[in-house]
Design goal:
263 residues; alpha+beta; THUMP fold; 2 domains; 4-stranded antiparallel sheet; 5 helices; 9 strands; 36% helix; elongated; THUMPD1-like; RNA binding
Length: 263
């Protein structure tokens, strides 16, 4: 056997066929890439649309009309003393007028709409529980409500001073009754039996306040429970007694669990 070398001659048909196969594969790969790109692009658009919708929804939620916040004209101040509760009134509410309006309502309706409060103690303003500050406050209130030291325009009234001191060692009733009348306009006179007004001095810990209470005896010393239990003959209630109570500026309660108390 002779050694012979085989020379491979490429078959143009086979070569062409191979080339066609390669072109088809390239076309398939191009189609696959385009499909992937289109799919990815569609996914991006979809995610963007969802994100835009979510953002728009959040924007809508954030731009909803905000609920109007109503500011209360009364503020409850809880104390550490059992059965004592302070209610602060913002202008234009007048604590004395508010109290009188409520007490008159009790007389007219026979119902106090609460079971907790025993007595109301309206005051106009507060100060540090010290005699000098109390005298300054008294002079200011008397000038405004009673006409000042030299006032002749205000009608003459009779008055007495009533102090209620709780957990306070800086003030004494004796000292208040001795010093405070000097700040009352001299045109007004003292009456311990049947005064037109009662000057209330309320002291609690380090705070003191002054109020002017008209019709004090008529309205049972602003004792709600006593006022409710008294039949109003003008309303023809047939002697029906009433029961229940409510709160105003500075109130006392008959319940140990709430704020209020007895003398």
């Amino acid at each position: 056997m002779s050694n012979s070398k085989f020379i491979r001659i490429p078959d143009p048909h086979l070569r062409g066929s191979r080339t066609n196969y390669d072109d088809e594969d390239d076309d398939d790969e191009d189609d696959d890439i385009e499909a992937m790109i289109s799919k990815e692009r569609a996914k991006i658009h979809e995610e963007h649309a969802e994100s835009t919708e979510l953002t728009g929804e959040r924007y809508k939620r954030s731009n909803k009309p905000k609920r109007r916040i109503e500011l209360s004209l009364t503020v409850i101040h809880h104390t550490d003393t059992p059965c004592v509760l302070f209610v602060g009134c913002e202008p234009p509410i007048d604590p004395v007028r508010l109290t009188l309006s409520y007490l008159d309502q009790i007389k007219q309706t026979g119902s106090a709409q609460t079971r907790s409060v025993q007595r109301l103690e309206p005051i106009y303003d507060t100060c540090i529980a010290a005699l000098p500050e109390l005298l300054i406050l008294g002079e200011k209130i008397f000038k405004e409500k009673l006409g000042g030291v030299d006032a002749d325009a205000k009608p003459q009234v009779s008055y007495k001073i009533l102090s209620r001191i709780r957990n306070c060692t800086k003030l004494t009733s004796a000292k208040i009754i001795e010093e405070l009348p000097r700040k009352v306009p001299p045109s007004h006179r003292v009456s311990l039996t049947n005064p037109d007004i009662v000057i209330l001095v309320i002291a609690y810990k380090s705070v003191a306040g002054i109020g002017i209470a008209p019709r004090f005896e008529e309205l049972k010393k602003y004792n709600v429970s006593q006022l409710v239990d008294v039949p109003d003959l003008d309303l023809d209630q047939g002697g029906r007694s009433r029961s229940r109570v409510t709160n105003a500026v500075v109130a006392q309660s008959t319940s140990d669990a709430s704020f209020g108390g007895n003398d």
